[in-house]
Fold these 4 entries.
Entry 1:
Amino acid sequence: MTGKIWTWIAVAIVVIGGGWWLLSGSSAPKAEAGPIKVGFIGPLTGDAASYGIPFQNAVKMATDEINASGGINGRQLQIIYEDGKCGTAAASAAQKLISIDHVQIIIGGFCSGESLAAEPITTANKVILFSPGSSSPKLTGISKYFDRNYPSDSLPAIKIAQLMTQKGLKNVGVITETSDAAVALRQAFVDEFQKLGGNLIADESFTTGTTDFRSALTKIKSANPDAVYVIGQTPASDELIIKQMDDIGLKTQLFGGFELFGGEKMLQDIPNLLEGAIYMEPSLDETATTTKSFIDKYTAQYKTFGGLPTIYAATSYDAVYIIKDMIEQYGMNTDVIAQGLRQLKDWHGAEGTLTIDQNGDPQFQYAVRVIHNGKVENLK
Amino acid sequence: MEYLIHIAILVSIYSILGLSLNLVVGEAGLLSVTHAAFYGIGAYATALLLTESGMNFFLAMLIGMVITGAIALLIGAVLSRFDGDFYALGSLGFNVIVFSILLNWQSLTNGPLGIPGIARPSLFGFSFESNTSFLTLSLVLLALVWGICTLITRSSFGRVLHAIREDEQAIQVFGYTTTYYKLVIFVLSAMLAAVAGALFASYITFIDPSSFTVNESIFMLSIIILGGLASHRGAVLGAAFLIILPEALRFAGFPTDVAAQMRQVTYGAILILLMLYRPQGLLGEYRL
């Protein structure tokens, strides 16, 4: 029996020790020759993999393009992909990328939970963490080594609150999905709306996967709101909510939480119910040359963006090019790159024109959209 | 090296969880699928006390343990009336409830956004900021938990638990109120899980409800079933094995495109093989 224990302990020691020795021994840190290593953390397995895989694809596409055209300063770019599982597993991934692969820049995390878990480790090691997908307002200015090219959720929510006040919609009901992005959006909205003197007369929430919203909607209806703000994380739940609002006869001005609100499927399924609905989205001009060539090339290679809205694929793709520009301009000193990222101004890429502010958040142009006759139009 | 220390810290946290869960599952033979709930309550209680009131970590951890114990007492009072499959299902239900509360009581727990910026512990001016010192702290707490578990299993109380595991009705005939024993061990085990929760929260410095799902409870069960039920060394070995294996698989040399997915598949395959050839676990004395 004791013999067995020692065998197992020996196996464990050989496995970690061997793995560590092999990888740390062979790769000399901060080598000036050989490929430039950049880390990647995203939800490659689990429920959020439908975002993580297209994220990985977009990053891979940009990397291949860069390497085909001569790399960065003549060196090839090598991305090391690690799984963050949309949560605290990102801490292990970040630790591995930093101490084994000696990366100085990590693209990720994608989920806000990944970025929040990895950030203490990357900051302690002066490693740049650049996220193309985390939208939690808690990440704003969290560290000088953290930046993102996807905007914080608080931005569109504040604008919607201002728009409602302008339109004289005083009594508003909100229905929110309990996911990180939706909850953050609701919080930012409520704070701004109440500051502007609005009344939140109904405040309902539902967990991901709910299909029957009638009791929550009936409560909202009985409060007799001027407008309803629907904050679902996915178009699927938004569509169900709007259909059921019609079932129970709740007719009022509709506002949508995310850019997915005017998704094609919804517009095809329920154009009448969406008439007059208002939502905001980062203004991605899909006809701009860089954006169009990215979308065409991506769809030719990988067919579909999966569950990922196009804007996220564009920010993921751009992240690699931003990192490339930073290394070319400032070398591998992360302190200098960290400063350089916050001076990024009118950078042009697939997501459009990007400027990063002093808190590491991008200045994004938002467009207010309204649905009219089954088509998306800009609100005048 | 930092990476190895990181893994060692995770192993000690999960060893504490394994040891404490073993008290209920291994010693008393109650299939509890709710350990992640107590781990979560401990983590949230500590995190909230640290971020909201700036209290000392060790005090916060003790309060967290008391809160977790109190909640375990309430739920245990119900669960102790069950046995067998009903116990497993009832406890699973409790885990789901706790997860929903962590997710939905947003004014307290911040919901799905989680709690960032949790401080590392410090004691008498010494801060456990570096990973090496944090590892020392985790190992000390692991040793303490090990000591407590040994004390419990060697006592006459522990022998009654064994008897409940082997034949509950027989021990009832001798006049033991088994419900009481089941309740006490359940509460003790929950309080020890809160220690692991406190360590996890201040180590990662960020928690959100997704770390405390039913899946996590099942992972903890796997630790002790793989390591061997009712064996302290088994619990630690199981934790080490299940934490190190997926990390070691990062170096298995899979093509980068499918590395993450292959890791999951290989991990699953190894677990199946182990259960096939060693169903009593690596060091187990008792089978479910």
Entry 2:
Amino acid sequence: MVGLSHFLVLSSILFCLGLFGVFTRKNAIMVLMGLEMILNAASLNFVAISRFSEKLAPAAGQVISLFIIVLAASEAAIALAIVLNLYKNFYNVNIDEINTLKE
Amino acid sequence: MDLTNQLSFLATLIPEYLIILFLLIIVFMDFSTEKIAEKIPAVAMSGLLLALLANLFMTGTLYETEKLLAGGEIFVNDGFAFLFKFMILASSLIMVYFFVQDDEVNAYKTRKGEFYILFYSMVLGMMLLASANDLIAAYIALEVLSLPSYIAAGFLKVDKRSSEASLKYLLFGAVASGVMLFGISLLYFSMSSTSFQILVSNMSHGIGFDPVMILALIFIIGGFGYKISMVPFHFWTPDVFEGAPVSITTFLSVSSKIAGVAVFVRFIVYSFAGSNLMNQEIAGLGFNLNSFLVLLSILTMTVGNLTAIFQNNIKRMLAYSSIGHIGFIVAALAANSEQGLIAISSYLLIYTLMNFGAFLVVLLIKFRIGSEDIRDYKGLGYKMPFLSVMMVIFLVSLAGLPPTAGFWAKFYVFTALMEAKLYLLALFAIFNTVIGVFYYFRVMKVMYFEKSETAEPLPILTGGNKTVLLVLGLPLLILGIYFTPVVELARETLKIAGF
């Protein structure tokens, strides 16, 4: 029987993988992919908690996850546009090599 | 909430409706002919002015809608929100003047409409943030504010520094808000709600802090902390402030911080300060939330002020100095008293004036000598006497010395700290004020006591520039002598909020 704890464990794994990707990857696109995993982990959490909890209003978590999906999509669009513009300026999307600002 | 109550609440959102309406008008103006598009700044200004007036007229009705606070509402419009929206709208109004002056931004003639659309979405996000009373609402408002900020920081598309600032802001901001969202989902798991008040109502039944909740709180405080650039979530601030166009830097350092502080204070006050949770020991770890805030505050002001000493780029220096100021605001929040909240509101009012002034001077100097480096400010005291005198007023006020209002802003923070018996924090605050004096006076020293090699005359200021500088600078001197109105305003608005 699949219960709430299974979903929570899965979302925690997703979150940790996403965070790991954000901190170790040097390619801006890969960092953004890690970011998507973090957002999806949160989204999964909301849906699962709302499905298994009796205390909550029905479908509250699902509505929240719809908001998250919309925001994640707009964030991805903006992020890719910024990375594209960065590539036009530096011919590179490696975060470590982009340091014209001090430090 | 019954229907009449709901309608009266919706009526208090008129400033937000006006912002949305003018946002759409600007979109359509941008689509039409060039002649109409030329008038966008004027329309943007009048829209903000209307929203500001609507916000002022709304105050009267706030006394009657007090009962709206009762339930777990998503948005609240109380005196606290009113005061912060007033600051946000007034500062945005001055911002339009900055945008008109900023030649870097104006070089992109065809993208003027785009720029003001971004600006208006940021204003909308800030206003929603000031009245958000639910973690999901706060998250969405935070994103409405952040997404246009990322683009605005990289508005100078062909400029390498600007696009790098944009990328750094995007990566830090998106990760911080993503982690915060995960924290919210954890809190949703342990508390079954996302309302700010939920912690108080659940904890008063005697449920202690559990590990999941502590993790969730750290994630959420991290998300808010990134927005107000609190150490250790501040790494984006100096790079973004240096790379972005000056006017956008100003907007991010003043208005965006005000909105961030508004939501952070509301979260801490509504979730914890209402009960004795601030002083309740966390899961036998030997410290409470209050000492956590004290720690963050000490870190923030010390790191901000110490690093500011070594900066040669003035925008970067002001970025670190704004981190230091946030440290003072968090200190006042840690005092956990009405006195502390009054100190926060009055500090932010003064912070707006002095930081705006300093950045306007930086902007005007940049387009006259073409540099943001402090070492290039040699001899400016004699070349541009009026501008330099105003800069001295702003810097003395930022340092927090007596003849200016900056002194009283800091004084009220100290009073709140002494009343709350946080002597160690007060000691650190005094220590940091001394460091602040050092690096602010360095700028003045360069302007007045170092001779410049060239003596060519600089383009003089227009009447409009002088007027705006005086509008920002004179209140600092007048309030420095008579500070009571600011404190009274802060006290009165907090009374409506029922904190």
Entry 3:
Amino acid sequence: MIDLLTAPFVEFAFMRRALAGCVALSVGAAPVGVFLTLRRMSLMSEAMSHAILPGAAIGFLWAGLSLPAMTLGGLVAGLAVAMLSGFVARSTVLREDASLAAFYLISLAGGVLLISARGSSIDLLHILFGTVLALDDDALVLLGGIATVTLAGLAVAYRPLVMECVDPLFLRSVGRASGPVHYAFLALVVLNLVGGFAALGTLLAVGLMLLPAITARFWALDLSGLLPASVILALMASVAGLLVSYYASLPTGPAIVLAAGALYLASMLLGPRGGLVWRLMPARHLEA
Amino acid sequence: MERLTTSAPGGTLAFRGLTLGYARHPAVHHLDGAIPPGSLTAVVGPNGAGKSTLLKGIMGEIRPLEGEVVRAGLARHDIAYLPQAAEIDRAFPIGVFDLVAMGLWRRVGPWRSLKRHRDAVEAALAAVGLTGFERRPIGTLSGGQLRRALFARVLLQDARVILLDEPFAAIDARTTDELLALVHGWHGEGRTVVAVLHDLDQVARHFPETLLLAREAVAWGATAGVLTPDNLRRARRLCEAWDEEAPVCRVPPARPGPDAHPQSHDHGSPDPAPHDHGSHGRHSHGHAA
């Protein structure tokens, strides 16, 4: 039984690489997802994942299926959209969701135009759904680097980031940290989506960022519990998804995200913090 | 009055021809005057009189349409602000202790440990009667309890100027008395306190200075002289609706410094950034003070 769980990783280097990549992604992206959901910006990452498409496409048209080129392109496009929409939200009447929607749609349309002008549909699938089983050294270094930068960034900006989430007006009133923290957080979101798209593809990177973060709400009450819970859930989904895809010969990216989805459904039903089952059998109220 | 640490003559909040507003419509119109350090001032006036706008202007949350707020010797962290409707996300999973401890930002910044300040946070919570609430998520607090927590946060900010926007709205009488005691404590320590209030009896009993605002300063000075029936009637008359057809205000903008030269303002040429005028023709420009 244990063999069944470990054998694929022991026997095959490509499975070990895939595991290492997913571990790096889980450690970085899941905590970012927790802050995204707490800021009610869950769907923002979905939009961002589309926004990085034209950059990745330009990288692809420039250098073919080259990870550094596509990553750099995606990073530039994603950061541009994040910073522009953040700037518009902070200095005009538009709220963040509306300004982001405007910029990501422009970006997405540009990306589709670029790809259809030059590439084939197979190339597009590659960008959208990634190749977790073909992670080379460059990709692993990239994923590890992104996880490191993300954790360091969250550690450095943790306190002002929490304050920016809870009470942005207060943070503005006591110092100048509000703007930089906002932009730094958006940059971390883009960084993790771009890192994820190499492994899982743009669409599924969002899954590993958000699903564990959302699921964690059923297991923990505050940030000190939510952050580790989200990482653990992401790791569980990664391992389960890799194993399922190995034994059932299924595509890896969707398998990982579906595993995260299964964890979400189970937690929604059974999670000790507000799971459905506990709502159906409420305990008697207390005296005070 | 200078009982605080700085010896600089600063600490005064001065308004010079201050016009604040939204979409060129003034909510506070050509306000001149100063709030001296250590004073305890109530800002009263009808709805839409520009009271909250004035506090936002002092904080720098909104930029003046014209004129300026001079914060002599006051840094950003010297001014604490308790907004009327805080932008607090009450669904965020954070405890009362952590919310209140935000008031320590100036001292601990993003990285320094809170450990050495734990007693200060506990003391602030005790001062507002929230001992034992440390670990309660903020989402489970009642409106009044959250207000108390925000007072505790202001307490920890240790600011020289404290701006309170309707601090006692929807607060029960006993809590109001306790919070008023805190306000008097701040006054006793030589801090400047400015509070937007609606309860005129409360103002008369607790606040030595009053600014009666109705877009313009109707009266400003010792409370007893300001809250006269005549002044209050005049304040009510100043209309609060904004007029879409309001003409552009032609009052010459105040020049920085005491030696302004209003004559040099050419009325024939268009103003660089003129604002709409909601109330011209309906009241005189005379300031009774």
Entry 4:
Amino acid sequence: MKTELAIKEAQLNSRVEEDFMTGADVLIEALDNQNVDTVFGYPGGAVLPIYDALHKSNASFNHILCRHEQGLIHAAEGYARTTGKPGVVIATSGPGATNLITGITDAMMDSLPIVVFTGQVSTAVIGTDAFQEADLIGLTTPITKYNYQVTDVKDLPRIVREAFHIATTGRPGPVVIDVPKNISQEIVTEAFETDFHLPGYQPTINPNPLQIKRLMDAMRTAKKPVILSGAGVQFAKASEDLLEFAEKYRIPVTTTLLGLGTFPGTHEQSLGMAGMHGSYAANMAIYEADLLINIGARFDDRLTGAIQHFAPNAKVAHIDIDPAEIGKNIETHIPVVGDAKEALKRMNKTEVDCEDHSEWYEKVMKNKNDAPFWYERSDDLISPQWLIEQIYEETEGRAIVTTDVGQHQMWAAQFYKFDAANRFVTSGGLGTMGFGLPAAIGAQLGSRDDTVVAIVGDGGFQMTMQEMQTLKHYNLPVKVVIVNNEALGMVRQWQEKFYEERYSESLLDNNPDFVKLGEAFGAETFQVTEESKVRETLRKAFEHDGPALIDARIVKLDLVFPMVAPGKGNHEMIGVKPCEE
Amino acid sequence: MRRIITATVQNSSGVLNRVTGLLSRRGFNIESITVGGTEQEGISKITFVVDVEEERKVEQLTKQLHKQIDVLKVNDITHHNKVARELCLIKVVATPQSRSEISGIVEPFRARILDISKNSLIVEVTGKPDKVEALIDLLTPYGIKELSRTGITAFTRGTQSKQISDYQTLIV
């Protein structure tokens, strides 16, 4: 009797509430106002009001349901990387939110604009170890650009606007908004403010003219200039300005892993990627340079190798929107704080008569021609590098490529030549296994007409392979290529080279049947074990209008070369040419 | 070297956690930290003392602090002409016989006795850290039962006539 009454009362209340807006409605509306077109989400207890509001709303964005919250966040990263727009994620409190942690950290390391909404238990029980409670603010403070817990529903619209502003401006990054359940249920009675003012957050966009002048003065006298282009060029959409600058002065250009495509990979001045598995020409150019112009790269340790041997003779100019990156790892002589595009525009406007550096250019290009990335073709199994080249040719170099981390990632970076920015989606800073497949989902949703290839390892694939179902669910034509060497290849490579071939727990000789798995997930599935069948298989997969999975059996013991051994300088690369390993 | 760094911050929830968390994960060890309100509502000031040798690391520290969205201003005032003070409460063993002796020690330090009980005294001293240190040294032989220091809070002086050259001590 009592319960019936309670139900009636609740129904009555809900009828009354329909004319009002709840916090959840405000949230959905705020997202719509941000022109969000895709939201990656997974429902749960603490976000039930938000999902109910979503169900009832006429919001114009699509909601994409993945199969695991890690899938959501990597998909949002793939979306953000390829479109330049913020990736939006909704997950529930407690485990839903903690499942996002890896991806949020990944986005922080690689500066991706992500806005995450997490559910939270009601404010009345926060701090009591309630069901599915986790201290998301405490957990995400070190791995976000900023985070919020909403404590008053009238702050919600302002917080959403602030969060999008913070995530997408300056050096992009993830922002978390923790929404307690009672806040999203609360009926909004007061008018709310949406204007915001962030006195402590004013990113410098326009560089100091004096530093630009110093940089151009250094250009005038440089005899051995080289450009290092990083992901900052991508975020600033400065590829054309970079091309103009590099061509004008005929400067060789190398990129970081995340900078691939910011300068056309097939351009004659391109040296490809620098760093641990970068090209010999790129590393030697940096080593011998007398002027290193870093545009939007953060001098990560995989790029620099042993710091004392990094660009030892160079005057270092560093253009970065984040002043904290300048001088963090490498001593910088010419700091330029600002947006890469603004800096390059000003550099292009300044005319300087440079010293003739054609001799330097010839020398660098000789290295490029003499020591390109190389591999030895196998007689029976598929050579992984050759496989990447076939994917490159089959997609005419125009695909969006996502990867996990490890050997296949490095082979993709070496052998797929990206001519445009935002085409290579990889986990650079954090090095997250299982990133490739979900990132491809986001990339495909952001660029429906593009070919998206997820080049993944057999180890990484098994970390997020449940997302194959997301592909099927939305019939996304992502092509997943498992570069299968039945091992955690990069771990095994290090064990071979630096741990005397003690292959501790790195061999996966008991993998599942990927063909059956692919079929179970409803993907067009292939296994290819010999090179003669590769092109035909790729063609079939690419022609299929829907998800496809290829289990490509590669030479098991192949290694990534050239390589800078840990603790060595970039000029001490091993395996630069065949038989030098 | 001990550095005094001040940060003006917006008094939003969790700001202290953000700042101290940042320092610890970037490998800086905080020797002391004081936080409190300022003349402006909603704005707090944090004063830290950290021990950092390399100039580059200090630069990194101030830049990382400045990058925080709630942080409005950061100053490394180590080399500035400044006023730095801390407060210290000392509960020292004091028998009726030793009371007057202790009060004789305390007086030149312009410290105050706040509480007297049968066996102990509570002394309050305010000043630059080496003065506090000196008083503690003098009181130690009597037996210190409890001691609590607030850590330094500091201002730069109105006129920065000359830079102080002896960086090694926290001269006021």
